[in-house]
Amino acid sequence: MTPTLVRRQRPSSSPSRSRARDWAEIQERMLVPLYEAVHERLDVGPGTRLLSLGCGSGLALLMAAARGASVSGVDTDPRRLELARERLASRPHGAGVTRLGLGGPECVLDPEGRRFNLLTAFEPLHHAGCGLGDLARSLARAAACAERGAAVVLAGWGPQERCSASAALRVAARLGDPMTAVARWRPSGRDDLENLALRAGLRPDGSGRVSCPYGYADMGSAIRGLLSTGAFDAALRAAEEEQVTKELTEALQPYVRTDGTVWMPNVFRYLVARVP
User: Fold this and answer.
1) What is the pLDDT of residue 127?
2) Whole-angstrom distance, CA of residue 197 vs CA of residue 272
3) pTM of the predicted protein model
């Protein structure tokens, strides 16, 4: 599926709130093919009790709820979570249970004790040294809230040569504080997702690849969308935003088409693991 090009959006007064809104209105929809592929493969529907780790502004949850799933999500960004609540509040009543929480999976547990049968972590790994031990412990904690045999889906980048976003991520790495873990980006390794799953005590059970091109109506939308991902947070702390924007603009020039749109082909990889 090809994402719709995004029109220029008006900025809000708060940079952090603006980036959360940019994620919801510009960037998050680029991952729709990934969400759809996973939902279809795992037959998400009325019997699904889904927990999304890092649910962001809730687009994947909304898509699962439209298939009849009962959805829950947690995130550490209160601004994105606020947008998720707005989105999910607009769906029809009786379309499945919805729980959203700021923090860990414990804050959205079913009061009747029913465990989740699907966990998703769609946020791709942007870098190495990003606290894989912490990620594994978080996954293990979430898996403890799932039933035995439940599917756990992890997502990451495909091969570097098939991910145009690598050019942008190299800018984030170069400008980020070298003492900050999130600045030490490297291309995704072939077994990164499997290694993370094994460290979390999960059992790998298949994988897939999905084309997720990043398409933007203009350079301004491309810059705002990419800055909203969180991959540039370290760079924005270490350098002026003007410098980050300048270097990111230069890195994106090869992907500008004659009509001014920006088109970046990418392949994402996902892993399906199981709770033992």
Assistant:
1) 44
2) 9
3) 0.88
